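Progress against Task 2.4 (sequence-to-structure conversion) is shown through the following example record, which the project officer requested during the mid-term review.
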Amino acid sequence: MQKELAPSYLKDLKVYQAGKPIDEVARERGLTNISKLASNENPLGPSPYAIREMTRGLWDLHRYPDMHAYSLKSKLAEIYNLKLENIILGNGSEGIMAYIARAFLQPNDEVLTCDNTFIGFYILARSVGAKLKTVSLTEDYRFDVKALAKNITDKTKVVYIANPNNPTGTYITKDEFDFLMEHIPSHVLVILDEAYFEFAVQQEDYPDSMDYRYDNVLTLRTFSKAYGLSGIRVGYGFGHEELIAYLTKVKLPFEPNLIGQLGSVGALEDRPHLERTLKNNTKRYGEIIEYLESKNFKPIKSITNFVTFKTGSREASDYLFDQLLNHGVIIRPLKANEMPDFVRVSIGTKDEMRHFYKAMDEVLPEYDKKFGRV
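Structure tokens generated for the chain above:
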């Protein structure tokens, strides 16, 4: 084109890479028995309550949804003891991250975070021309709060913390969170991405952001993980009413959609389904750690619904990913997260995990000849 239409900072922006879909693997590999362990979804599926509510909504698809999502916001306000003005909804927590970028970031604003965290946020910050400043994770793959505190300057506009972190599954403790907040000025916006909150809150030293309520903190959560509603894309955020008011100004109308609003309310009403999800996750987590360690891999200890382990090289990760696909198992290589020598495995059902172990047992002999262990 004679004249560039897009701003220069979009030229090198990378497209988000999602986990490989089941249908795509079926087409490419000619398989029917496929276990997707790539996207940290709930293997038990959605709550029956959520399905009931979404089904009821099908008869109203000719109507626009409630723009203010009163029923869903009211339910969240009741659970978390908030006002409606403290709540923002979006198409997944990434949707709210997009609102944050629109509302609070301008070209060359500085965003501080760590390496090897959720790449969706990197992309959204860079999409408005913000400058990312990152520090390394600690040796045990955790957010380095001391390094973050040291790197806060007059230029820092936003600090992004994924707690627990994706793709490592690690977390900062209450004491570490307290330390970090003591070093962050009140004019700096803190984004706490708690997508895996329901799994993490079982840890005694996990800092539930709802226990703090800082005016400069925005908490992001989602119905995509523990609630099993990835397909309807609903995320929610909590914050000071002034912050929420700004986000509302840039929010697209009618997000989330009708089915998303209804399904989310249903999911919140079905605590037993959430408990079953957590119980399955705890049991299968122990099993996968035991399996990987028995094969001399070194998994990163996680408090989420996934486990990341080291292969030793990009070539080893790519080989393992490809060979497992041949056996109908989808895992997640982590090149996009700048961890090319690691792969991530979501925790599935008992049968899905057996599928993974069987496939690994068949792949590892040849893998060992090529790569060995690290």
